Amino acid sequence: MRAGFSSASAEKGRTRSLQRLSGYDYSKPGAYFVTINAHQTFIRSDLFGKIEQGRVTLSDYGAIVEKQWLWLGSHFPGIRLDEHVVMPDHFHGIVHLLELPGDAPRKPLPQLMGAFKTTSSKEIHLAGLASFRWHQSYYDHIIRNEEDLCRIRAYIRANPEKWDAAMARSYGTAIAHGTARSYGTVAYGTVATVPYDDDDDDGLPCAEGLQP
User: Fold this and answer.
1) Per DSSP, what are the bridge partners of residue 86?
2) 7, 180, 198, 208: most buried by Cβ count inside 10 Å?
3) Average pLDDT of the chain?
4) Does residue 62 belong to any structural domain of this protein?
5) 103 lies in some domain
6) What is the residue range of 42's domain?
7) In Å, what is the CA distance from 159 to each residue of 11, 41, 75, 86, 154?
8) Residue 197 covered by a domain
9) Would you say 190 and 177 are in contact if contact means Cβ atoms under 8 Å apart?
10) pLDDT the model gives residue 4
11) How far from chain centre, in Å, is Cα 8?
């Protein structure tokens, strides 16, 4: 093992690599669905905003997250942003890496996500939350075709409403069992995740498909 490279660091590296598709070139043109969670310290909190009646009201920190996501699209050539949503403790978005003429450089997906996480963290620190950090990595799904793209767009649009329903069920169960906990200004139960399902189809039309 190299000097200065601990077994803990090696384990973190293995964890991060397992969240990427082994051998895949993430600089290739295509569409990618990403999910980025706040650090576990902030999970099940209303850090980035609240969801009421299926609608997200962003906090100042959530507005920073959205601003820095949009900044990616204006700052880096060769990318196009698609649907996105800032959730209370995580973020979902679609980014397209486009064909560029000649040998024009294009940032690969991991570098884009690194820029997003770094700049949004710095802005949140400056806004007053010095303890904020993202989860060490992110989750991605390579979008293979237009049907997949449409399903994921529908999932992102519906996520606040599904989260609201999941929270209500979770909190109601927690109240019944006396296990409800309070995070910040919102009381939640113990489970509040809304996983992406490849077979989930809400029947929403696809406004525009995969484009080079």
Assistant:
1) 91
2) 180
3) 77
4) yes
5) yes
6) 24-157
7) 32, 22, 27, 10, 8
8) no
9) no
10) 35
11) 25
| 181 strand-pairing partners | 188
The 10 Å Cβ neighbour count of residue 156 is 20
Identity at 43, one-letter amino acid code: I
Q: How many CB atoms lie within 10 A of CB 94?
A: 19
pLDDT at 210: 52
The number of distinct structural domains making up the chain is: 1
Instruction: Residue 42: give its domain's CATH number.
Output: 3.30.70.1290
SS3 call for 165: helix
pTM above 0.85, yes or no: no
Quickly list DSSP for 80-137: EEEEEEE-SSEEEEEEEEPP-STT-----HHHHHHHHHHHHHHHHHHTT-TT--B-SS
**Which of 11-25, 123-137, 193-207 ranks highest by mean pLDDT?**
123-137
Q: What is the rounded CA–CA span in Å between residue 165 and residue 163?
A: 5
Both tokens of residue 186?
Answer: 């919102």
Distance CA 32, CA 212 (A): 13
| Residue carrying the six token digits 């069920």 | 169
Instruction: Identify the band that residue 8 occupies on the pLDDT scale cut at 50, 70 and 90.
Output: very low
In a domain, 55, yes or no: yes
Tokens 């806004």, residue? 127
